[in-house]
Write a structure and sequence with these properties.
The complex is a heterodimer. Chain A is of the alpha/beta class. Chain A contains eleven helices and eight strands. The mean pLDDT of chain A is about 90. Classes of the chains: A alpha/beta, B alpha/beta.
């Protein structure tokens, strides 16, 4: 990880010399085994940049906050689609952005890693050894098998090397996802339940939603300036809102179904909604269900069409007759 | 319409429960189809509350949820047959949208009978009546929709 970090810092320094105004990357968190988004605005701030297997955030959506600055952003394989999505929907001016791709060896689940490492050991170096990460700590060396410590989304990852980037750092990483793992396995399990059991499954999850809207805020496909769940103008000027803000089961279910539906065909599968959820609702189960159906019914969307629901074919499958 | 006594679900008050259906009908085909069912004096259950929409593609999926929250036991969306849309392409979009939405609703635990989409043309009064009959039968079998209803 050291080489990538150094390369990142060098590239950032060079870009600032070339007139860059904002560099969006990662820095080490204030607690062990954690990274956080980092915004370097001047040359002198680039030394804090890092890349390690805890950089799980998708930084693409932060680009929207700097509409007029020359910005560079660090993306992993799963984040590259998000930049593409934002550009496609005209939220970003691609000419102002430098996309820096990093090969990703998978991201680690922090809790599991911390449980494995000695409590008072300080992590001094991390190396990627293809099937495992080797942690050098002040208490010795620890080998963490990827199979056991990677995030669930990394185990079904199909594209750990970003595409469509301006600059690629380091060598391409070997595939991370386990071969033969069905990404829709859990979706199929739920679909196989009978309706009352399915309802019970979802009610239990939706009941704990706080409606903090973090899943919406973080989503690179959720980029409307005005959201259908809360309109900007008050009182009588307000258009129709079909959903109450009350945190009740029907409203939560309504919110999540519609949120997933609004990003249907536009979801890039980065899994950020699930990561930021404070009550750990497995939201990707909704997104993945839609992605699977879209795949089955309509196949790949042509590149000039913003989303699968913005187009049609006269020969689409008709389940309504 | 006559129903078997044993099929009738009774509410707490003991009165026979009748399912409530909210039907979004497209102005150009299905609404006229429902009208034809009326003027042809075709008998169909009175459980349906019709909302006329300019096109089936006007039906926001949130309307469906809203109807369930406001006590609907079933929701029907009906529009022109694909290819016959007054606005040329509206129902093609509806077809994609609602195919995905129906699958999603079923995935989160709604029974397939609760949400029905049907193509009903202006000349298909009989078909409209049959659709409503079918839905009422299905819903009577399922019982009241209590999951997200607030009433």
């Amino acid at each position: 990880m050291k080489e990538i970090t150094e390369m990142l810092q060098q590239v950032a320094a060079r870009l600032f010399n070339e007139g860059l105004e904002m560099f969006i990357g990662y820095e080490s968190g204030s607690v062990p085994a954690k990274a956080r988004p980092y915004f370097a605005a001047v040359q002198g701030e680039t030394a804090a940049l890092v890349f390690n297997p805890f950089c799980e955030h998708n930084l693409a959506k932060y680009l929207v906050r700097f509409p007029n600055a020359k910005t560079a952003v660090v993306v992993k394989g799963c984040d590259a689609g998000a930049v593409e999505r934002l550009v496609k929907e005209r939220n970003l001016d691609r000419t102002r952005i430098t996309v820096i791709g990093v090969p990703c060896g998978g991201m680690l689940a922090r809790e599991r890693v911390l449980a494995e490492l000695p409590q008072d050991g300080k992590i001094t170096a991390i190396t990627d050894r293809r099937d495992a990460f080797v942690f050098q700590t002040s208490k010795g060396e620890h080998v963490l098998e990827k199979k056991a410590f990677l995030l669930a989304k990394c185990l079904i990852c199909t594209q750990n090397n970003p595409t469509g980037v301006d600059l690629m750092l380091g060598k391409e990483a070997p595939p991370v996802g386990e071969t033969g793992k069905d990404p829709y396995a859990r979706v199929k399990e739920i679909s196989a339940l009978d309706p009352p059991a399915r309802a019970a499954f979802w009610d239990r999850l939706m009941d704990r939603c706080l409606r903090c809207y973090a899943c919406r805020e973080v989503c690179p496909a959720c980029s409307c300036t005005e959201c259908c769940f809360e309109q900007a103008v008050p009182g009588w000027q307000q258009g129709a809102i079909w959903l109450s803000k009350a945190v009740t089961l029907p409203d939560n279910l309504h919110y999540h179904v519609i949120r997933a539906f609004h990003v249907a065909g536009r979801c890039t599968g980065c899994g950020e909604c699930e990561r930021v959820c404070p009550v750990r609702i497995p939201l990707m189960l909704l997104n993945r269900k839609l992605a699977g159906d879209i795949d089955e019914l309509y196949g790949p969307t042509p590149p000039d069409v913003p989303s699968v629901l913005c187009t049609y074919a006269t020969g689409d499958r008709d389940e309504f007759t | 319409m006559s129903v078997n006594e044993s099929d009738v679900v009774t509410t707490a008050e003991g009165a026979a429960w009748e399912p409530k259906i909210v039907a979004f009908l497209c102005n150009w085909c299905s609404y006229a189809g429902a009208d034809l069912a009326g003027v042809s004096r075709i008998k169909y259950p009175a459980n349906v509350r019709i909302i006329r929409v300019p096109c089936s593609s006007r039906v926001n999926p949130q309307f469906v949820f809203r109807a369930f929250e406001r006590g609907a036991d079933g929701v029907l969306v009906a529009g022109c047959h694909p290819g016959d849309c007054h606005y040329v392409t509206g129902n093609y979009y509806t077809r994609r949208r609602l195919t995905l939405f129906k699958r999603l609703l079923e995935y989160v635990g709604f029974e397939p009978e609760r949400f029905i989409v049907r193509w009903v043309s202006a000349s298909e009064g009989q078909r409209f009546a049959e659709t409503v009959k079918e839905m009422v039968d299905g819903l009577k079998h399922l019982g009241p929709q209590k999951r997200v209803s607030r009433v």
